[in-house]
Write a structure and sequence with these properties.
Oligomer: single chain
Number of strands: 12
Structural class: alpha/beta
Number of helices: 7
Low-confidence stretches: 243-249
């Protein structure tokens, strides 16, 4: 099985990439050098120059548009240099670790067995008063109504799914997932027209597009509505100080 689960970073990181866990640097060639299993989002068809706005989604866009360069993987996923899946069953949504090492990827408990019985892989959701209320605490409260209007315009069949998700209590963070190739292309075909439209009509045109997290959660629900089954895994937060989370390892 040919799988790639990218670790996205905007700065140099001290991890040992592999064909299974390659590093994707976003916002340009951070290292000014090439190395095995290291990629940059400023080659081919890309939106790297807008990384400051699109965040990790500039890396997702690059992978979508340059898929053959990746060896046409069967499954593709995305993590972050300080946000990594732990591939084990847990009642907790997250854990934390007080330092990183080159061998941290060997501690994630990854194997091809994680795909058994699942159509796609997502983070364990956090419980909130509501997705919309949680988003509004940190961001503009006009963002979600605006993105719902865009979904209603572009994908009217998804409007009710979107409304239900933002009113619900289970929230997915970090734009982390592992999709089959066809799901990934469906996701990108769906989310980027919304993001480009949102960027065009938003009054906060230079703000970072945190709304992408909301859209990714809506897409998860869209897949579930089609009868597909997700598998939830917790996230490991890499801290540069003593862990602040109760569920620390």
């Amino acid at each position: 099985m040919n799988n790639k689960i990218f670790i996205i970073s905007h700065q140099k990181i001290d991890l040992s990439p592999s064909s299974q866990f390659p590093i994707l640097y976003v916002g340009g060639n951070v290292l000014n050098e090439k190395a095995d299993n290291i990629y940059f989002d400023n080659t081919g068809d890309n939106i790297s120059k807008d990384n400051i706005i699109f965040n990790e989604m500039s890396g997702v866009y690059w992978a979508w548009k340059n898929y053959d360069e990746l060896g046409n993987p069967d499954n593709i996923g995305f993590m972050h240099y300080r946000r990594l899946f732990i591939f084990k069953d847990s009642k907790y949504a997250y854990f934390s670790k007080d330092e990183s090492s080159k061998d941290i990827l060997n501690e994630l408990n990854y194997s091809n067995e994680i795909y058994n019985g699942a159509d796609f892989i997502v983070p364990t959701p956090y419980k909130r008063l509501s997705v919309q209320a949680s988003y509004n605490i940190a961001h503009h409260d006009i963002d979600i109504p605006l993105v719902l209007d865009i979904i209603k315009e572009l994908y009217p069949n998804d409007y009710e799914i979107a409304k239900t998700y933002v009113k619900g209590k289970a929230m997915y963070f970090n734009n982390m997932f592992i999709f089959k190739k066809e799901q990934f292309f469906e996701y990108c075909d769906w989310i980027f027209p919304i993001l480009f439209k949102f960027k065009e009509v938003s009054q906060y045109k230079t703000d970072r597009l945190f709304i992408s997290e909301i859209l990714t959660g809506i897409f998860f629900k869209k897949l579930m509505a089609k009868g597909l089954t997700p598998k939830n895994f917790p996230i490991l937060f890499i801290e540069d100080k003593k862990p602040s989370f109760k569920e620390s390892i």
